[in-house]
Design a protein that fits this description.
This protein is of the alpha+beta class. The chain has one domain: Aminopeptidase (3-Layer(aba) Sandwich), CATH 3.40.630.30. It has 8 helices and 7 strands. Helix 6 runs antiparallel to helix 8. It starts with a strand and ends with a helix.
Length: 212
């Protein structure tokens, strides 16, 4: 399939921050994501890749030989054994979205889902949501919860589709405009009925993405 979900790693952070700035009016600093990946054992973050972009930005061995060489600043013995990923690398350029959650007791709390604007309304945010619910199963959560802007009806409709229901309001939750947040929870995700519904929705989505 064209799209793939991977675990977020430290070299992904610059691209993640770039996408977040395109997607949202207020953002986390790069240091916050690095701290999440390094120090928060309850945090789980993923990135979404467009594999076609990896092919587009890939450099052939001949092109690598033809690239102009810069003067080395360090002795060879001090250089890393594998080249660092830069902003021009296929791995970074292929990232088109990211998402994450925290495990809080038996609750998987979705902290963010962000998509590059050029890839919206193609089912890819839904693809990341299914990836997060899969993680919730893997880490032993019983429920999945999140906050969403009161004005974001498109996202709310997606969450309703996956069994989220309104559970309250966080007043003035968003710092950029003081908008309220709607708190949403799933039913218990380990029930046979929810598992059956989730798997059916996920399978239908994968078939849709395979033909795009």
């Amino acid at each position: 399939m064209r799209y793939a979900i991977d675990q977020m790693t430290m070299p992904d952070v610059p691209r993640v921050v770039e996408i977040e700035r395109l997607a949202y009016p207020s953002t986390w600093p790069p240091s916050a994501y690095r701290k999440e990946l390094q120090d928060n054992r309850w945090a789980h973050y993923i990135v979404l890749r467009d594999t076609h972009l990896m092919e587009e930005y890939a450099v052939t061995p001949q092109q690598e030989l033809e690239k102009p060489r810069k003067n080395r600043l360090f002795p060879l013995s001090l250089l890393p054994s594998r080249p660092a990923i830069t902003m021009s690398s296929p791995e970074l350029n292929s990232i088109i979205g990211f998402a994450g959650l925290w495990l809080m007791l038996d609750e998987a709390h979705i902290t963010t889902i962000a998509m590059h604007p050029d890839y919206r309304r193609q089912g890819l945010g839904e693809f990341m949501l299914t990836g997060l619910i899969d993680i919730a199963y893997d880490i032993g959560a019983k429920w999945v919860t999140l906050e969403v802007r009161m004005s974001n009806y498109i996202a709310q409709n997606l969450y309703h589709k996956y069994g989220f229901r309104e559970a309250g309001i966080r007043h003035r939750y968003y710092s950029d405009n003081q908008e309220d947040a709607l708190i949403m929870w799933t039913e218990e995700i380990n029930t046979p009925s929810y598992k059956h519904k989730f798997q059916g929705l996920k399978n239908a989505l994968l078939k849709k993405l395979e033909v795009q």
